[in-house]
Queue: 4 jobs
Job 1
Amino acid sequence: MTEHETGPAGRPDGAAQQAGGAVARAGAPQDNGAQVKTGKENGGVPEVGIPELVIISGMSGAGRSTAAKCLEDLGWFVVDNLPPALIPTMVELGARSQGNVARIAVVVDVRGRRFFDNLRESLADLDARGVTRRTVFLESSDEALVRRFESVRRPHPLQGDGRIVDGIAAERELLRELRGDADLVIDTSGLNVHELRAKMHAQFAGEEEPELRATVMSFGFKYGLPVDADLVVDMRFLPNPHWIPELRPYTGLNEEVASYVFNQPGAKEFLDRYAELLRMVAAGYRREGKRYVTIAVGCTGGKHRSVAMSEKLAARLAAEGVETVVVHRDMGRE
């Protein structure tokens, strides 16, 4: 993020929190928690409403606090830096609240192997209880993280006597498995605070959870691949409108540019066949319980071909009942 989220005393996001120190923030009470059985055989214990749970984790300095504040504003009960072993207890307390705490968000970071093992055990416990949970992972490039820590003159929580990059590398290795299991990965390298909040709002503002949410992102290969992409599409097999003088100033949102792109041999056929492929992939994601997918559509500069194709693919997905957000990462960057 270009506007860095800081904690008390100007510390980077997550660095200000001390292990074991949990701070709870409550938004407006909600009454739409998922009603399921606890699975406990306690005789006269009635059914309770188990809260919906979101776990927010990721790299220190990548925006965990910003993501948490966004959920708080949306009415979630937010707990900062809760020890993982206490997450099931927090969910159980929410279940006893008679629907007053229907959605809980827990912010966790991983400072050591024991901490990670506790988190893994807690997640297994939640799965055994039938708790609906999602994991949001905040990612960022090493360069962006170094810049953020240096801007506030604070050390990385894991760097010890080494450099900031040493702490980042250690944390990235500890979080590797958690990142791989995350339902939603958000790369904040090029995002400011407001853009990250917009992404979180787009994913969590709805009153009802859709079966699948898709982000279709256009990008330019010369600016690098999006690290949070699940699928990558290359549009450089089509002629580049950049070399048409009258089209060069415009983007793929322009009707003339889009018409030029889709009048090229193979463009419409590619759209039809890839949309059909996405239909099959989306069905598989639903079966596997994956709720979020990011489809990155690239061309050279992320201005013409990728933008036009992203818009068409997003429209096809929406027509299939997939809630879709379109992001043009590099449009206007030139």
Job 2
Amino acid sequence: MINIKNIQTMGYTIAALMAFAANSVLCRIALKDDAIDASSFTAIRLLSGVLMFFILFRFKAKSFPSISEKKGSHWKTGFMLFLYAITFSFAYISLETGMGALVLFGAVQLTMIITSIVKGNKLHVSEWLGIAISFSGLAYLVYPTLTTPSFSGFVLMGLSGIAWGLYTLSGRGSVDPMGDSALNFKYTIPLVLCLIAITFPMMEISFYGVVLAILSGAFASALGYTVWYVALGGLSEIEAAVVQLSVPVIAAIGGVIFVSESISFRLVIACLLVLGGILTVLVGRWKFAHNRA
């Protein structure tokens, strides 16, 4: 018998993954073509996300959620969203689309795994093996030099992945995906205004760059992250981690199609090691939990 809820979850998940990959492609196009600077891209991306939520709530004849209506630590998730977005943009100055997505979601998975360990969940031997394999992939990615990819881009994207991993974990218990996502974006406004004030003299903006940032913020981010929060309601923590492993592949293909990037042998090998290692961790954890049950 067909489970409608599972089909809906699958649809939401696929849409969210496409949005994640689209963010990588849009950001890389904008920065590669010097259509906009990284700070302006981030600011416009987040502010257009806020604007999109205002439009959506007005369309639903509901007021934008306020702090008093939503209890909890949205300021933390708002900060994580901003940290993810700003480091994401600056990392893509020097990283190609596929490589950036690989580092990003490699860090996401490791963050979710480490968080699970901190909570008291012990790892099986196969899971430790998977972590070792994934780390070897990241090491291979930056060896023998720290310029392929650039060390700064690698570190920034890694930090972005940690922030996104924590943001994802915070959304697993959401009962109001749209309202929670809206507040998360709303809490980034003070940080965005500070960013604009600091980087205003260095801003370089074109109409093309603004359009790309708006597409990233209003659609791939605001709508994409809301859909992701909806999908998380039907996914286990392991499933939520596993499905994101497809994003680097989607982003790499997008980079080849839309940014005319090439797929290097080093990227392919690193991708296989990192994603294969993380998959080993997740499958090992599932089997261990299944055997205990």
Job 3
Amino acid sequence: MPKWPDAPLSEVQEVPIDLLAPADSPRNKGVDTRHARLLAASDAVLPPIVVHRGTMRIIDGMHRHQAAALRGERHVAVRYFEGSEQDAFVLAVRENTTHGLPLSAEERSAAAQRLLESHSQWSDRAIAAIAGVSTKTVRSLRRDTESARAVSRVGRDGRARPVSTADGRLRASELLEKDPEASLRTVAQKVGLSPSTVRDVRERLRRGKDVVPQRQRTHSTHRLGPPSASVSATPPGQPGGTVLNLTRDPSLRFTEDGRLLLRLLVMHQLPTQRREKLIASVPPHAATAVSAAARECARAWSAFADQLAASQGGVASGERRTTAP
């Protein structure tokens, strides 16, 4: 659970009842008079009331405060909370969902909505745990608030995590393509993801799928900026430079077909030094067949290039059409 509501409380102090202000309570109907009378009628020593020192508003214990007044007591035992008013409300919600008179489902949902507005950086699970609602309910409420745009959220363990892992997934895919045997944990540490997420990236690469799930592509596209900003890093004349530049283009990387096209282009690059080694690896009896297959691939790519150029209004300026061998 996030650390803010767990701030230590003061030692117990006796405080005049008249100094305490009504609670900023998650309860819509205020004090349940019947419940307060039952507490007043009991002989039990009531636990201290939790009070926000900055405003003297009761955080937890409105029924105990009312019971003490019904008993005719002029002082009540208090423990002070030193945090902000927003964190005081968090503490009020948490305390009222873990003991005493239970909050209604409507009150818990309303409390979750307020927590989303005041602590939008918290994860859905963290808010759900405090408000006593399901994670699904918080997720639904978050979609209707500006807090859905947060870049990162804080989980129940107090650690901040990105809302979207899109950028990390893309970096992980680049590392895995360079070194397919790299361990999941090593890649995860380099890109700031969990090993399980890196495993998912590896599986998506293996199946030729987009490494970024559909629901995260909006976040990633927004943060990476327009495609044109990342397509000019390497001079096109440099061997492999055109393909390398294309692999940085989000408009291709964030679609499954675009991803497949990039993988095909990367796979079909044939640097001179690599070409000589591949030729040397072909046995004499297979030379004719391999040559024919290579020509088929060349014709297929040539036809693809011609069709692509035609769809864009003709061959681009400076592009020279060639005939496949």
Job 4
Amino acid sequence: MNNDNQQTLLLIQPNHIQKLFNNPVRLLAPMEGLTDPLMRQILTQIATDLGRPYDWSVSEFIRVTQHLLPAHVFYRYVPELHQDAKTTAGTPIHIQLLGSEANLMAENAAFACELGAPAIDINFGCPAKTVNSHRGGSVLLDEPEVMYDIISAVRKAVPADIPVSAKIRLGYTDTSRIDDIRGAIDASGANWLTIHARTKTQGYKPPAYWDKIQSFNELSIPVIANGEIWTSAQAQNCMTQSGTNHLMLGRGAVTRPDLVAQVDVKEDNADHTHLAWQDLTSHQIAFLQGQAKNDVVLVGRYKQWLGMLTKGYSEAQPLWNSIKREKNKNAIIEAIKQSSYQ
């Protein structure tokens, strides 16, 4: 979709939602067990420090099953609700819900809004077997009529000024129902759509099929592309092939926390938004000094992140080799400090 057509379509959106997409948006993806509140805090702070804040991030999914969830569940997943639903860097956090019962999803969405959620996102993309076996996430891509029921029920239940969005994949086992999925989204009242450009069966295996997003640009709502964006070059290719300028960054943003600032930077200006390893070490230490159930959890989560950083920074590998069996948090912090001088 070219920019003129996109602006024309946005005219039917409420003004406050239209303004969100006046410029290309850059979002931090919801990733279960990865972009938790602590990781969101660190990554949004880095992005803000580099001069290209995320427009917003989306929480890990909150599972809706049999009843209205109590407030403490929402606060556990999204403690940012205690601070105007924003990270300490000021990045808004949208609440993502996952479930298959339209009325329950609507009730929980309405309650989340009462607690301060600035927007509700609905998960139709999670490929996890445990989620799919309980009729949640991407398995519903084979039931577009249920997708419609859920989105429309949520849209009716939450205040009109609060956006409702959906995140999908291209299909479950294949893309044979893509037209039905697009039709369900179109009729549902969703305010925008994020598409991970692979099916559930394709998982996270390269490549992502960005060109398959093109047909969704026929919708009268903004479309956000996601999947297999690890570098600025891939981001540019994704935008070209998908026909949308809006991007959600996932694992690439964890591996290279400066990716969001690199996406729209020309080669000759890249140094201004590049995060050197020496500058990243302070954020790693801040992560280990963050809030968690206990130090064991913090160390485990940090090692998960460091393992991913080895794909983005050559300096991460020797640090990983030196601390992979270390359990003492303070010893790991000292090793991080030492790595900044090497």
